[in-house]
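Q: Sequence in, structure out?
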Amino acid sequence: MPSGCDDVTDLKRKDVETAAGDSLTRAAEEIVAPGGPGAPGLDKENTPRALNRVNAVGETLLHRACKKNQVETLLRVLPHPGTDVNVKDHAGWTPLHEACNHGSSACVRALLEHCPTLQLETQVDGVSPLHDALLNGHADIAQMLLRHAGSILLQQRDSGGRTALDLVSCPELQDQLRTCAEEGDAAQGSEVRDLPFLEACSCLLTCLLLSYTLERDVPFHEPPGPQLARALAAHSAPRVTERWAQPRSVRYAQDLETLLGVGRYLQGVAPAIRNCPGRHTRTLMRQLELLESEGRELLGDAPA
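A: Exactly. Output:
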């Protein structure tokens, strides 16, 4: 059943949600962080009962905790080695699905905050966690999901071809959900969520750039580099080289075109990546900035 405007009133409780969020964060720090104040660690005494028990329908302790909004239990399960936050029961439902279906806001918040591998796009018969939340009237949870993952969730369709917004009949609520999605999109570029992965990719790209530069050693600043740069600034490489017979000359033009386009690619790099403190990411950004500067110099050297 589509969510109506009555749900809007549920979204105007920021003070309460903030207080709840602060309490949840403190609880997580005490339960999850090893060695923190009051942290129990992962000893046997603090291991939840029925940790590895699966019931007749395939539900794990995570599923059951999310159905009952037992966030303390959830936070005690998450640190255990081998815990799969995306585990499915026999019907294919994940703990996040259960939390969204049953309105377990605290559990949804905990999963989003403490599980970087959490899958928000999993669907069962076309029903995603976002669909599940809206179908059951939990607009506050829908907001959390959209603020976390952005507008990509609004592109999902259920088995009937409906998007999440198609389930909402109230225009005001639709606008609020779109705003949350926009906030989520903006957040994607404002913080680095997986620094080790970014650092590994940056290291690989830097090595590839340096290896290519050393291997090719293309003297772009020597003729015909500057003149060709001006031609490529006005026309594409395929058009400039359409009558060229030498493959090496064509490749030279393609490489130069790529060099001139580095500045355009840099503009599309998220601020979080450009300002990332990681050593390999900083090195990659410096390398790209040097290439961009070289391209600008080439255009400046080219005769009018």
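The chain has two domains: 5-188, 195-301.
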